[in-house]
Amino acid sequence: MPHTYFQSIALALAVYTFAPLSARGQDSCTAQSTPVPNTRLELGAAFYSLIPNKLPGFQERLFGYGPQVGVSFGPVAVQAKGLYGDNNGMSLILADLDFRLNIRTPILTCHVLAGAHWLHYGTAASKLSHVGPNGGVGLTLNFDSRIAAHMAVKVYFQNENVVSMGAGILYII
User: Fold this and answer.
1) 54: which strand partners?
2) What is the value of pTM for the model shown?
């Protein structure tokens, strides 16, 4: 059932983004030259599903949630995220710091992520930690100049890779 949750979010975001464009007609779909500030602060919340790949003691999918903060400098940004998740006695703490390259289109922004992470997980009896690089791709849907939603798929490289898929909401200052 977790995949239905993410599918519902994706469908709602798509309808919210594309429905107003079709209702306005073709003339309003042209790109507008709205000045974008060079430096912007991004504050938000992220919700991710981590899918382990044979990590010792980490056998099932686990959901994590937490804050995300970033600073963008034109098409390049630095972002930090912290996630926490707990399910059936298994807990997870994930912190990552990424560089993000934004590729803007009139409707949405595609991005490429690369950075480093710290993953700490386990049960009360045994805890394990890993540090390593990560990379990923994603989309950002700008609802207006202050609010955006983002979706991403990331791979955390370590002795056994972990894949994550998630989404979140950003408030842009």
Assistant:
1) none
2) 0.73
